[in-house]
């Protein structure tokens, strides 16, 4: 019988655009992991509700980030905090290879509390130029890829992420959440999360908060960084990912999450997560 640490599948998908593997480490807080070689991948502007930490192995990852534009070359670490709008692409046209972590906020908050830090850590730098940190993260990623020893997986996770927080995170997250989004837009965002699979019209969303369509578009994009349509697709993609990781059939997920068809779901997953729904489905824990 496999240990809990081994109760996940990994799947490698190869194409002219590169290859990718995606899996979930349930036993260490549900960390999602990606190991990929992207040649022509270009991520659309999107957000994650996790910390996104990547170790660049080959090539260079270019990005447009809400706080800056930049490049993370081989040997360095790219960092995106939860909720930050960003893109990703190969800098210099050669693509990039990396090992990427999607770290749940509950896990990072818990490790920070163990360190005596109150609240959610915040990383002010989008690129960490520290080869020792990069090597530690790379070793952790490999352990979560190959080791079936639960104690090793847990110990490495706590140690490496604790060091990452201690050395590179600030103790106080800038108070950008409170008051940053007008109440009208916040209500619309909540509606979109509640009714993500239903057809929503611009006129309905605008009327619900007492704005014209033009005013609503302008205020929404200024507050969220995305158009309402792009934000709704973002919500649907994340809900679809959650269902795929639960082992639900791809066709059912596409319908339930409001996509036109499987090809629409496939395209959006590639644009946001860099992998197809099939890869996500193969990464679901075994039952």
Descriptive report:
- The chain is of the alpha+beta class and 287 residues long.
- It has 2 domains: 4-168, Sandwich (Jelly Rolls); 183-273, Orthogonal Bundle (Arc Repressor Mutant, subunit A), CATH 1.10.10.
- It has 10 helices and 10 strands.
- The chain has helices at 105-114, 131-146, 150-168, 183-194, 202-208, 213-224, 228-245, 250-256, 262-273, 277-282; strands at 12-15, 18-25, 31-38, 42-46, 50-64, 69-73, 77-80, 86-90, 96-104, 127-128.
- β2 and β3 form a beta hairpin.
- α2 packs antiparallel against α3 (150-168) and α7 packs across α9 (262-273).
- It is globular.
The string of secondary-structure elements, in order, is EEEEEEEEEHEHHHHHHHHH
Contiguous uncertain segments of 5+ residues: 1-11, 175-180
* First-residue to last-residue Cα separation: 12 Å
Helix content: 40-55%
Count every helix, treating DSSP H or I runs of 4 or more residues as helices: 10
Major β-sheet profile: 10 strands, antiparallel
Q: What structural class do you assign from the helix and strand content?
A: alpha+beta
Q: pLDDT average, as an integer?
A: 88
Q: Which fold does the CATH topology of the largest domain refer to?
A: Jelly Rolls
> How much of the sequence is in beta strands?
15-25%
From the spread of the alpha carbons, the general shape counts as: globular
Q: For this structure, what is the CATH class of the largest domain?
A: Mainly Beta
Classified in CATH, the superfamily of the largest domain is: Jelly Rolls
Question: What is the total domain count?
Answer: 2
Q: Say how many strands there are.
A: 10
């Amino acid at each position: 019988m496999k240990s809990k640490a081994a109760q996940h599948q990994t799947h490698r998908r190869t194409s002219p655009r590169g290859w990718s593997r995606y899996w979930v480490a349930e036993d260490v807080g549900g960390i999602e992991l990606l190991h990929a070689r992207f040649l022509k991948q270009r991520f659309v502007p999107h957000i994650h509700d996790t910390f996104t930490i990547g170790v660049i192995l080959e090539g260079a990852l270019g990005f447009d980030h809400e706080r800056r534009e930049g490049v993370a070359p081989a040997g360095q670490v790219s960092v995106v905090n939860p909720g930050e709008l960003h893109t990703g692409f190969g800098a210099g046209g050669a693509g990039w290879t990396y090992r990427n972590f999607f770290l749940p906020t509950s896990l990072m908050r818990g490790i920070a509390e163990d360190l005596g830090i109150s609240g959610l850590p915040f990383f002010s730098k989008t690129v960490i130029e520290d080869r020792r940190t990069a090597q530690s993260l790379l070793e952790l990623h490999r352990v979560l890829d190959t080791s079936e020893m639960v104690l090793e997986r847990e110990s490495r996770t706590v140690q490496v992420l604790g060091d990452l927080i201690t050395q590179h995170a600030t103790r106080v997250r800038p108070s950008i959440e409170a008051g940053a989004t007008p109440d009208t837009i916040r209500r619309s965002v909540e509606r979109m999360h509640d009714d993500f699979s239903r057809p929503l019209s611009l006129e309905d969303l605008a009327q619900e908060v007492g704005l014209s369509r033009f005013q609503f578009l302008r205020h929404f994009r200024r507050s969220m960084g995305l158009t309402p349509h792009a934000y709704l697709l973002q919500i649907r993609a994340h809900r679809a990912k959650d269902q795929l990781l639960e082992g639900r059939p791809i066709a059912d997920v596409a319908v339930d999450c409001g996509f036109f068809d499987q090809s629409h779901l496939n395209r959006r997953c590639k644009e946001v997560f860099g992998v197809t729904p099939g890869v996500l489905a193969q990464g679901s824990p075994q039952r």
